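The following record pairs a protein chain with its ligand, IPE.
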Amino acid sequence: MSLIKEKIDTENLPQHVAIIMDGNGRWAKSRGEERTFGHKNAINAVRNAINACNEINIPYLTLYTFSSENWKRPTYEVNTLMSLLTETLLLEAEEIFSKGLRMHVIGNLEKLPPMVREQLLKVVDLTKENTKGNLVLAISYGSQNEILNAVKNISSDVKEGKVDIENIDEKLFENYLYTKDFPPVDLLIRTSGEIRVSNFLLWQIAYAELQFLNVLWPDFSKDIFFQCIVDYQNKERRYGLTGEQIQIQ
Ligand code: IPE
Ligand code: IPE
Ligand code: MG
């Protein structure tokens, strides 16, 4: 039994946690191995994050798996990541299903090799009736591109008379994002010590708590995740109000 998990207030859980799973390459290099060795050793950390969320019933977990910029990495690394993704999905689909998780994918899926896309969509379809929690994989995902696409689609709806410019507000805008069915991110975690968001969920993290950990992704454990939740619960989220106003609420 985890002592850290015991400290979590189950009444004040984040509804949506997003993770930038960073540091695989450095983890491998520090062991004198190729970068791809780090990716292979990252799968257990992914399992840890999913299981930790599932154990404490966090309804939405979004994992930054592959960014739109990651396509520019060496071909060998990209190919290894794509095969790993397909293999892992094949192996883990049953497990995701039996945990009652519904999987979603966000990003520019057209750029993915057909095998990967098909495997992803298969698991999305297999789990579509599940309601225990949501696992969102951001793959070939870039937030600026997501926002630009929203702008283009709204513009075309304005042109066709489906949307009145006066009615464009935050709520309407969100309906044009990949994440339209998900709540805003409450907690964003990034491993590897880098303090940046690297084109991830820029709109959706407007009021998220941010945590940057000095841990490389393959070393990520359930207890590290639980500690992030405890730290999140020790923050006062003010949304622009004063601390006194929040105390009264
Ligand atoms: C994260 O680890 C995995 C992906 C971006 C796909 P990196 O591969 O970025 O590892 P570092 O940051 O170079 O150590
Ligand atoms: C962000 O990590 C993308 C993922 C974790 C999938 P990167 O390693 O690509 O980010 P930068 O290049 O350090 O900003
Ligand atoms: Mg990196």
